[in-house]
């Protein structure tokens, strides 16, 4: 009885082939989820979504297979997949597309192809995470320096910036403590993040050991 459900109609999908495709989607979906979890910050809901997404996409592809409205139906199904929380990063987007690709391939019957492809991609990602490929060599930092009002701040720290940073620019200046102190804000690109303490110590000598704040730039940017 069950076999007849999958052999009648336009799609003509044998039950055995359907079960193989479903099993492949589940296994490869778990592979995507485990790969995404490796050395990454994630939520349980997101990795569960990655694991189940291939079999869901596969079911849509199998339902519309051979139909003249295949393209419209697939686009309509994909438009339902929305992540209404914070925007995902590049790694999250890559995992989502990988999971969708698995569903597309298994839905069209290319189980062996997508299995080999997924194993190669997972091995490549795990290997590249162990290397220093893509590590940030320079770090953009926001630097806030407090100086006495009697110090002439233009070009005051230029030689220190030349030693520890690739470039810098003065962003803002404001007075504090009833005008007796200046707070200068710079944006700098450090040459070596390991030299942050030495960088701050060099500035402390110049500004009389007044407060110094060095942190990440507070800006909302799209991750590419």
Mean of residue pLDDT values: 81
Structural class: alpha+beta
Question: How would you spell out the order of helices and strands?
Answer: HHHHHHEHEEHE
Largest sheet: 4 strands, antiparallel
The end-to-end span amounts to 51 Å
* Model regions low in confidence, pLDDT < 50 over at least 5 residues: 1-6, 220-224
Describe the 3D structure.
This protein has a four-stranded antiparallel beta sheet. Residues 1-6 and 220-224 have low confidence and may be disordered. The chain has helices at 2-7, 15-37, 44-64, 70-78, 90-107, 111-129, 158-164, 196-207, and strands at 139-148, 165-176, 181-190, 212-216. It has 224 residues and is of the alpha+beta class. A hairpin with a 4-residue loop joins strand 2 (165-176) and strand 3 (181-190). It has eight helices and four strands.
Question: Quick recap of the structure?
Answer:
It contains eight helices and four strands; from the N terminus they run ααααααβαββαβ. It is an alpha+beta fold.
Search tags:
224 residues; alpha+beta; four-stranded antiparallel β-sheet; 8 helices; 4 strands; 51% helix; disordered N terminus; disordered C terminus
Produce the secondary structure layout.
Layout: H1 2-7, H2 15-37, H3 44-64, H4 70-78, H5 90-107, H6 111-129, E1 139-148, H7 158-164, E2 165-176, E3 181-190, H8 196-207, E4 212-216
Helix pairs in contact: 2-3, 2-5, 2-6, 3-4, 3-5, 5-6
